[in-house]
Amino acid sequence: MNGLHRLSGLKRLLPNVIGLTVYGPADGEAGATAFEVELPHARLLLGLTTEAWRGFSGEGSLLSALAGPEVTEHAALVSALLAFEPVIDVERLRLESGLTTAEVESGLAVLAASGRVGWDVRARAHFHRELPDDTERVTRDNPRVTGARRLIAQHRVERGTELGEWLVHAGTRAEPATYTVRSADGESRCTCTWHLTGGTGRGPCKHVLAVQLMMKEIR
């Protein structure tokens, strides 16, 4: 991983550290990494993106959950049921909200992106917290979500001629461009520059997100 100098923030804690746990991709590939130092009465987690110049919003792990058309409404309902739990019980939220598990998780994704829900990597569960909230910032910080919704609204996504193939007309009148999105074995690939240069390491491109939205609408 590049940019390990970012760990310098832990230097002051070294005399008090009694344990260290490192979290990263299970397959050993490059990805976001978290360093958790254990102190006598607390734990501190420091997360690092793959590159020092990349922010966590660029990792794209939440984009698919954020792209749904009703995620804001789901987030508002889930938020009303939270009670500062150290471990959020998704099943309880499902039963009390009347939402599906996927809808609860999409709502939690919005709350996580806006800072009102955190993720405990050790417990592998969300926890409730309250930070200054701006729901519109979630969209502003994730332009691929905005782009995908715009493509759907402008009817620029259609089925291709082959099974699992979609065509996304994302160009302008001056520079028309059509990208092909193919889905197989649970993965989607696009012919756009974003996907060709970054693969899935930075999350889905706006064309893949648009296809995912379209598939949800026609189910």
End-to-end CA span = 41 Å
Q: List unreliable stretches of 5+ residues.
A: none
How much beta, percentage-wise? Answer: 15-25%
Give the name of the CATH architecture of the largest domain.
Orthogonal Bundle
Number of E-state strands:
9
Structural class: alpha+beta
Strand order of the largest sheet: 6-7-8-9
Estimate nothing, just give the exact number of structural domains.
Answer: 3
* CATH superfamily label of the largest domain: Winged helix-like DNA-binding domain superfamily/Winged helix DNA-binding domain
**Total DSSP helices:** 8
Principal-axes geometry comes out as: globular
Q: Main β-sheet: number of strands, strand sense, barrel status? A: 4 strands, antiparallel
CA-based gyration radius: 20 Å
* Name of the CATH first level of the largest domain: Mainly Alpha
What does this structure look like?
The chain is α+β, with helices and mostly antiparallel strands. The chain folds into three domains: 51 residues, no CATH class; 77 residues, Winged helix-like DNA-binding domain superfamily/Winged helix DNA-binding domain (Arc Repressor Mutant, subunit A, Orthogonal Bundle), CATH 1.10.10; 73 residues, no CATH class. 32% of the residues lie in helices and 21% in strands. The chain has eight helices and nine strands. The protein has a four-stranded antiparallel beta sheet. A three-stranded antiparallel beta sheet has the order 1-2-3, with no helix packed on it. A two-stranded antiparallel sheet has the order 4-5. A hairpin with a 5-residue loop joins strand 6 and strand 7. Helix 2 packs across helix 4, helix 3 crosses helix 4 and helix 6 crosses helix 8. The termini are far apart. The mean pLDDT is 83.
